[in-house]
Amino acid sequence: AVIMQEYCIPDAKKNIIQCLDHICPWENIRMQGEDVKSEEIVVGRGTKINSGAIGLLAATGHHEVNVGQQPKIALVATGSELVEAPSRLAPGKIYDSNRSMLASMVSLINGLPKTYPIVNDTLDETVTALEKAFNENDVILTSGGVSVGDHDHVKPALEKLGGQIDLWKVSIKPGKPFMLGQAFDKPLFGLPGNPASALVTYLLLVRPALLKMQGASNCRLARRHGHLAMEMINRGDRRHFVRVAIDEQGEITSAGGQRSHMLGSLAKANGIIDVAANTRLASGEKVEVLMIDG
């Protein structure tokens, strides 16, 4: 055994050491192989490299390891109503928020976001912007321009570039007009223009794909369980991902207004709850929260 120095009183005259603590056999002995055994996998394929994993790799003599490549992600916002901050707003104009929001989310999972200038609602400008984005990136994330309006040009622009649309519209709220397409062997995720819709579709449909591209084995959002502090009702025919705040005690409250353009409740939310179509969740009911930054 090894006795900790602070529990010992040496007596130089008698050449003895008095121990002030109980001693057990093999106490404070670090056995060879008790942490990581010979031939054991130190960090497995698909594991996220966190600070603990870096320390373990260094302690076991692994100076370099192969990791998944960080994907370059183009962020393209479409809409003639959008303005770059800090320009002054004219009537009918709004500041773009989606590119900044999505850039922060992409960075959280080790992606490399690249923000492109706002694209006005013309087919030619959309084609030019997408072509440049495809040439310079691995993945394209657009926001806006994927619905059914006369000024929604992302789908025809993708087809004009020789690409294809694999999926359009998903039965969720917010986020119905989501699009998945591809061109030049690269994916394009077309997110709705409303901020809450863009965030929800990114979390549920884009984030797992970006993690999988990097070789991650766990692509799910972090989850917490808690109890509702209020009743929640979904009278619609689509799953509703409600923005909520869950506190340290597990109490869950609505983050505020749930309309898809509302950023106030988005800023207050740290999670979303999947409320099935035509469903009522009672106050006090235990539910699962998908964590936004998880």
What does this structure look like?
The chain has 294 residues and is of the alpha/beta class. The chain has three domains: 3-58, no CATH class; 70-212, Molybdenum Cofactor Biosythetic Enzyme, Chain A, CATH 3.40.980; 221-289, MoeA, C-terminal, domain IV (Beta-clip, Beta Barrel). It is 22% helix and 27% strand. The protein is built from six helices and 18 strands. It has helices at 51-59, 98-108, 123-136, 154-160, 195-213, 264-268, and strands at 8-11, 16-19, 72-77, 82-83, 94-95, 112-115, 139-143, 164-168, 172-173, 179-183, 186-191, 223-228, 232-234, 239-246, 251-254, 271-275, 279-281, 286-291. A six-stranded mixed β-sheet has the order 6-3-7-11-10-8, sandwiched between helices. A five-stranded mixed beta barrel has the order 12-15-14-16-18. Strands 1-2 form a two-stranded antiparallel ribbon. Strand 10 (179-183) and strand 11 (186-191) form a beta hairpin. The longest helix has 19 residues, at 195-213. It is elongated and about 95 Å long. The model has no long low-confidence stretch (mean pLDDT 95).
The CATH C-level name of the largest domain is Alpha Beta
Strand runs, count:
18
CATH homologous superfamily annotation of the largest domain: MoaB/Mog-like domain
Query: Largest beta sheet, briefly?
Result: 6 strands, mixed
Structural class assignment? alpha/beta
Terminal-residue CA separation: 43 Å
Order of helices and strands: EEHEEEHEHEHEEEEHEEEEHEEE
Relative helix content: 10-25%
Rg, nearest Å? 26 Å
* Domain tally: 3
Alpha plus pi helix count: 6
Spatial arrangement of strands, main beta sheet: 6-3-7-11-10-8
Q: Identify the overall geometry.
A: elongated
CATH names the topology of the largest domain as Molybdenum Cofactor Biosythetic Enzyme, Chain A
Level-2 CATH architecture of the largest domain: 3-Layer(aba) Sandwich
Strand content: 25-35%
Low-confidence stretches: none
Mean pLDDT: 95
